[in-house]
Amino acid sequence: MIRPATADDVPVVYRLVQELATYEREPDAVVATEEHFRTALFGPDPRVHCLVAEDADGETVGFAIWFVSFSTWLGTHGIYLEDLFVRPEARGGGHGRALLTELARIAVERGYGRVEWAVLDWNVDAQGFYRSLGATPQDEWTTWRLTGDPLQRLVSAS
Fold first, then answer.
1. pLDDT tens-digit profile of 90-117?
2. Which residues are bridge partners to 8 per DSSP?
3. Angle at the Cα of 146 (from 130 to 5), degrees rounded to 5?
4. How far apart are CA 96 and CA 105, in angstroms?
5. How many C-beta atoms surround the C-beta of residue 2 within 10 A?
6. CB-based contacts of 34: which residues, under 8 Å, 6+ apart?
7. Contact present, 21 and 120 (Cβ < 8 Å)
């Protein structure tokens, strides 16, 4: 079952984010807290959304965190999937496909032009899964990031 997360889901979503960080070989990288997620998802002006996947017993086994993007070339909004994670022991049960299917349904229903996301180079299992759905890698693009001290220095230099 796929459903929108509620405020009651924040503790389990937070645990899943920590599990994702461990899976992605960055177990100490999560600085966000449950309160960050509570505010981002359910505060007065939420700009990020979360779907959760539940197994047959009602246990949350995965999530998709996403936000609305915009394509200047398409002239329409899209969905940017920030993170999709299904616990390893629940993989193969259709949860990841169901999460992406729901995101696609939301995009089509709202008239959005695309759903896009990034995948780590070494995560060939995820890449194979996404290809099986018809997704294609955008190899000609490289993601760039400005964060931490360089971000602060840029602001301070102006």
1. 999 999 999 999 999 999 999 999 999 9
2. none
3. 50
4. 14
5. 19
6. 10, 11, 14
7. no
pLDDT tens by residue, 116-157: 999 988 989 999 989 999 999 998 888 888 888 998 999 998
pTM across the whole model:
0.91
- Calculate the alpha carbon distances from 54 to 1, 20, 156 in Å: 5, 17, 45
| Predicted local distance difference test score (pLDDT) of residue 30 | 94
Phi, psi of 123 (to 5 degrees): -85, 70
Structure confidence at residue 142 (pLDDT): 84
Q: How far from each other are the two terminal CA atoms of the chain, in whole angstroms? A: 49
List, by residue number, the catalytic residues.
Answer: 130
Residue 54's closest CA among 107, 101, 5?
Answer: 5
Give the pLDDT confidence score for residue 134 in this predicted structure: 92
Q: How far apart are CA 122 and CA 92, in angstroms?
A: 19
CA gap 10, 38 in Å, rounded: 6
Place of tokens 């060939």: 124
Query: Side by side, which strands form the sheet with 2-4?
Result: 2-4, 49-54, 60-71, 76-86, 115-117
Question: What are the tokens at 65?
Answer: 């965190």
Long-range contacts of 127-130 (CB under 8 A, 24+ apart): 129/96
